[in-house]
Amino acid sequence: MKNKTTRMLVTVLGGWFGLHKFLDHRIGAGILYFLTGGLFGIGWIVDIIRALTSNQHQCDYVQFTSEPPSSPIGNGLYEACIDVAGSSYYCDSIVRCMKRNPKYDLPDSEILKLGRNRTYEFFPLDANAILMPDPNNPHDNNAVMVLVDNNLVGYIPAEYALFVKNLIYQKSLSFAGVSILGGNVKIIYSNRDVVIDRNGFRVKLKFTYRK
After folding, report:
1. For residues 35 and 32, what is the distance between their CA atoms, to the nearest angstrom?
2. Which residues, 6 or more positions from 82, have their beta carbon under 8 angstroms from its beta carbon?
3. What angle separates helix 27-40 from helix 42-53, to the nearest 10 degrees?
4. What pTM was estimated for this model as a whole?
5. pLDDT in tens, 37-74
6. By 3-state DSSP, what share of the chain in percent is helix, strand and coil, each rounded to 5?
7. Measured between alpha carbons, how far is 194 from 147 in angstroms, rounded to an integer?
8. CB atoms near residue 62 (< 10 Å)
């Protein structure tokens, strides 16, 4: 309900049984309104007042229902590529997905013999991903997890979360995959000094969907 007039009409006409909550994909709140007659009419009246007087709710809704930049790839499919949010909090999970570079553990002299002075601890990873709604997320009930081999590697950015969640529920999501780069880097300088550059990981998500 991006249109304020539509939201107002739906809230006034169907708010007593939670129609506006269901349309916002707030299923739990919708069921509660349905069973209690809009929280015994009180919640319904409060929501009507909000719909009539508040522009902020509409602004927030538009902000968090954005479609990510995408390109048509044929047969009615579109492809989007975005950075996964929060990956810095899930480094342990990401490491479980990665393949360790054996050259990282070689003696420094051996690494130099290979003609290298910069060696990553992990190989880059390209893998299929699973996108799964996380309705119990304490920060956003529209949150969508990005999983690789059942490991949480981050979340869909908040501004795209509702859009992606709708794709999942509508079974319009065709494919999802991630590319993961980064991790620690061993740098060996010409004077044999060694520095470990402790980088985080960057997780990019590519997914295709049908409009």
Report:
1. 5
2. 68, 156, 157, 160, 204, 205
3. 110
4. 0.65
5. 877 778 778 777 777 765 444 444 434 458 899 999 99
6. 40, 30, 30
7. 35
8. 11
